[in-house]
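Lab notes, practical 5.
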Amino acid sequence: MKGVSRWAGLGALAVFLAVLPQALPNNYYVDIAVLAGFNAIICVGLNLLIGYAGQISLGHAGFFGLGAYSSAVLVTHHGWSPVLALLAGAVLVGLIAFAIARPILKLKGHYLAMATLGIGIIISIVINTEAGVTGGPDGIAAGPFTLGGFTLQGERDWYWVVACLLLLTIWLATNLVDSPVGRALRALHGSEVGAEVVGVDTTRYKVMVFVVSAVIASVAGSLFAHYVPQLTPTKADFFKSIELVTMVVFGGMASTFGALVGAAFLTTLPQFLTVFEDYEPIILGGIMMGTMIFMPKGLVPTIAAFIQRRRS
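Output from the prediction step:
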């Protein structure tokens, strides 16, 4: 039944993504949809780490920034093709994540949060200070993304690329969650000691999910570098990491589609609050407080539980 439900959800999402551009009045809204798609891809990967394995990360924007700047630097300064630069960035981030995962994932609670926060801050500082390579605070332009002689141009070309990558990421995440690996991650989240007692290699699974979520963020960052005219360090800073965690928590931890909804909602909402420009942070804060008070499990799990109660 889980397999049927997963395919039904993916099918519904594919249909929604296919018809959405027809309903958007102009390219401004398509641009917002593309940005929401990038955030959703990162959040689906981050949710594997936070929601299913129970390991907090406050530095995930650093991996997004590393992927973005790897692609931008390799393409701009060394003439690499965007695809090779994307793969190189993913390998680099994967190796860095693997190297730091084992020592920092021994930490728990706020100690782990502080360690991941430190990683994100270090990456952000390096990007800001190495101006000769990264452009420093002014940023760097990665140029257009080309593949097989075809160049992505305009928001609508990018929309289809991001939509396909989002579907692929969700498919991978849901398959992982429903596999023995996913069950091991949930056991780890419930009780690390209990998981070890029943034979789960908790260190191995924590390292694996940390690397997978970092690589997903890197791939999204590499594509994002070519989408924006100028890549700046703000996309890899502390506030971006907090924003990503907030999207996961708001949508619903341990819910792949919840992470998607959280990213889409919190990316698009500020665009509709511009008329309340002076009160936007207050309104956003109020919405977040209300959600956490009345829906502590997040938006999607709460709605799903309500529908299930109504049916029964």
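Observations recorded by the TA: The mean pLDDT is 90. The CA atoms of residues 129 and 136 lie 6 Å apart.
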